[in-house]
Amino acid sequence: MSYLSIKFIVFLIVLIAALKLTKGNNTHNIILLIASYIFYTLGDIKFLVLLLAVSILMWQLGKSIGKNLHTKAAKMYLTIGVIIDILVLGIFKYFDFFVGSFSSLLGMQYTSLNVIFPIGISFYIFQSISYLSDIYTEKIEAEESALNVLLYIGFFPQIVSGPIVKAHDFLPQLKKEHDINWDGVSWGVQRFTLGLFKKVVIADRLGVAVDAVYSAPAAYSGLSLFVAILSYALQIYYDFSGYSDMAIGVAHILGFDLGNNFNLPYLSKNPSDFWRRWHISLSSWFRDYVYIPLGGSNKGKVRTYLNLFITMLLSGLWHGASWSFVVWGFLHAFTSVIHKVFSDIKQKFNLRSKNNRITYFASVIATFAVVAILWIPFRTNDFRKAVLIIKRVFTWSAGVHYVYVYTLIFTGVLIVVEVIAAVKKNGNDIWQPLDLSKFWTKVVFCCFVILTALFAYIGNSAFIYAQF
Amino acid sequence: MLKKNLISQLFQWGVAFAIAIVITNSIVFVYNRPSGWIDRNKGATQSIWDPNTIVIMGTEGRGVHHVDKKGYLNANLPLEEGYCLVVGASYTQGKEVSSGERYTDLLNAMLCKSDDKIAVYNVSQDGYFLPDIINGFYAITQEFPDAGSLVIETRSTDYAPLEIITATNQRGYDSMQNGENIYNLLSYKKIMMMRVKEFFPIITSLKSQIDIVRLNSKQIVETETGVERNLDEYRTAIDLALSLVRSEYDGKLIILFHPTLSIEENGDLSIISSDTDSIFEDLCRKNDIDFINTTNAFFNEYKRSYVVPYGFFNTTMGNGHLNVAGHQIIADELYKALKGGDAE
User: Fold this and answer.
1) Which of A81, A368, A457, B36 would be a feasible disulfide site paired with A132, CB 3.0-4.6 Å?
2) Region of B63 on the Ramachandran plot (φ > 0 left; ψ -120 to 50 alpha; else beta)
3) pLDDT tens for each residue of A148-176
4) How many C-beta atoms surround the C-beta of residue A36 within 10 A?
5) What DSSP string describes A4-19?
6) How many CB pairs under 8 A join A and B?
7) pLDDT of residue A439
8) pLDDT tens string B304-332
9) H-helix segments, A137-178
10) B252: which strand partners?
11) For the domain that residue B215 is a member of, what is the CATH number?
């Protein structure tokens, strides 16, 4: 089921009514689990079996880890669990890619099996690993009842495209009373509406220009391609952060806090800063469950760079089963390591860069430029096309002149928001819910809802990150 | 107390929503404001705009246009003797570009001998394609009897023979349905509805959004691709229609054909052509009708300066309606044809 449907609104209203009419934490969790599986089933019923199987297996393995803490058996159960998770992800997401790549390397022919990609698998598998790891590291206790584990892994607001919530952040919330009150609903509805606006008004409209130019880059001028690169950088941000806002909003209405997934990533000063602001739940997942277990920064400089490199490379591969994503991850890994090396050199020799507004904005622009360029292979999924685009931009080639008006408008909006954030909020997100008990804030909110309906680009309800 | 508070909150939401509608309506007013339509069954076109109003287009391109007393997008000026009448669909209407940039306006500027008269008169309606034009051709010649030349605009030559044959059964003409007289036939309810639509363009915009949602949810797949056209039947039908049209009008008759384009992955421009194009052109020649095909002019302009005739900076290039460059190319081609020069 998509958030962008009347069906979903009806579903949510019925769910809220059911939660309001019942009492007791356990009853609420049962209702939420049933609702989550209905939500998932309405996307595609055949994947529910896999979700259930993974969830029950993780619950059992979690119990085994919990019972055997501080023994080798716990580590064994954790390893088994992680291997199962990786195998499931590998079979459904990467099988064709890896086998196809090896076959072509060995000069053998390979006919793709076209394995069906289960919705949200990249997200719930990572939550499964989080559950087992958090028990092993004693951040949480193993759940005796399957209900909470099933609900944690299958919780509907974030199962399709995240945010990836860590077990130690989410499971304690399942043990509290879910109070659906006016403040929570007001906050959640506003956040959902903001996400809806980002998705249907900004991202989908920008997608029109991106699709047109990226489908025939040889036809367009260097300037047009430059604008298209900018458009895609904005589109993917607004699309994914819009989805995250909707998920966070829905969860908040139901009394859950999923945390923030974006914090003005295009205001980043360097590649490391970017990954602290972009898809925060994924970056922090990789930090907690890959980078730190690899040794983090505690095993010497070279090992730190290697750990960082491996983490970023895996993060790239997580996004999709193709060499483009591997290269994209590799390039991000490379920029992050280079930045880390320079930071270490500066620290070692006690070199201080000037901390003024000009250097700040210059570093923001430079980081954005690198990120936007690296989005090109991400979007094209085709090296030759990516190279062609970069070449045509840098040689300022002649071609069809196309400066998409909405790219300019939404870039302007983003710049205004980021300048305010930089000046007033120390570079952090400026969003705050309106106090809807006041009359004029009601007017503002109504205007925002009507404008969203009026300027929505209707025709594309797919979310970019749902494919990962 | 609780009940009173609830009623007060609901009242506040109601008033807030009403104020929000007024505010957003004023935004839509300057962004995209269609005028009211008046349907009719015995006129040059099947409907006209509400006369003497303003039409603003902002969703594709950008244009502000004045509706004249006849209900078409022209200046309210008298017609020059032997003026050129141009009939067509939304491409001819040219709402997406500014007044003065449409091919009819450009041609008018080239042909007009004085500033206080019109040499090229635009008679167009959204979705008014060739079969509709054939069907209303008698009414066109009656509503505009003094036109010295007549241009019919079409983006396609590929029509079902049955549709064309049906269209030759001409509709009648009633002078009471002209823009100047039609108000006498309208009910107060219809006039009120038109005014509401004009002053609250937000209604049209929201309705259009809902229609798109409905259309998307139905996922209608209606395409004629792959349908085998019987070319003999097509030839007979078009010949019948063109000879009829020719017989009803003595002046210079031109069919303006501007084909659909596509920007290819390798950067080339390709024309989406049909096997009916050459048949249609031959039959025009047979019936003493000038056939202007802008294909070469479009190609040449693309080769020269990568200009595509369709598309806008607020939609996509190569698709949609004619842009300023497209209108200019067509105006140049029409001028050459009307002045006896060779079209490209």
Assistant:
1) A81
2) beta
3) 999 999 999 988 887 999 999 999 999 88
4) 21
5) SSHHHHHHHHHHHHHH
6) 86
7) 93
8) 999 999 999 999 999 999 999 999 999 99
9) 146-154, 156-159, 167-174
10) B149
11) 3.40.50.1110
Distance from C-alpha of A173 to C-alpha of A200, rounded to nearest angstrom: 31
Q: What is the pLDDT of residues A223-251, one digit of tens each?
A: 999 999 999 999 999 999 999 999 999 99
Q: Any chain A CB within 8 A of the CB of B316?
A: yes
Residue B46 forms part of a structural domain: yes
| Distance between B16 CA and the closest CA of chain A, angstroms | 5
Q: Is residue B256 part of a domain?
A: yes
User: Do the Cβ atoms of B152 and B256 come closer than 8 Å?
Assistant: yes
- Which residue in A has a C-alpha nearest to residue B16's C-alpha? A443
Confidence of residue B223 (pLDDT cuts 50, 70, 90): very low
Distance of CA A453 to the CA centre of its chain: 25
A319 assigned to active site: yes
Number of structural domains in chain B: 1
Closest CA in chain B for residue A460: B216
Residues of A in Cβ contact (< 8 Å) with B308: 400
Which chain B residue lies closest to A405 (C-alpha atoms)?
Answer: B314
The residue type at B212: I
Are B306 and A458 an interchain contact pair (Cβ–Cβ within 8 Å)?
Answer: no
CB burial of A209-224 (b: ≥16 within 10 Å; e: otherwise) equals: bbbbbbebbbbbbbbb
CB-CB contact of B140 with B87 (8 Å) = yes
Domain extent for B96: 37-223+233-338
**B17 contacts A453 by C-beta, under 8 angstroms:** no
Residue A398 at interface with chain B, using a CB cutoff of 8 Å: yes
pTM attached to this predicted model: 0.90
Q: C-alpha distances in angstroms, B329 versus A256, B73, B97, B103, B152?
A: 60, 20, 14, 8, 16
Catalytic residue among A252, A319, A332, A339: A319
Tokens 């109003």: give the residue: B53
Strands B79-88 and B149-154, by their bridges, are: parallel
Which residues, at least 6 apart from B202, have a Cβ–Cβ distance to it below 8 Å?
A: A450, A454, B21, B24, B25, B28
Residues B212, A450: C-beta atoms closer than 8 Å = no
Which of A221, A403, A459 lies nearest to residue B313, judging by beta carbons?
A403
Strand partners, A262: none
Q: Tell which residue, B133, B122, B129, has the closest CA to residue B95.
A: B122
Q: Do A401 and B19 touch (CB under 8 A)?
A: no
A446 with B264: Cβ contact below 8 A: no
More confident residue, A98 or B110: B110
Note the ipTM here.
Answer: 0.89
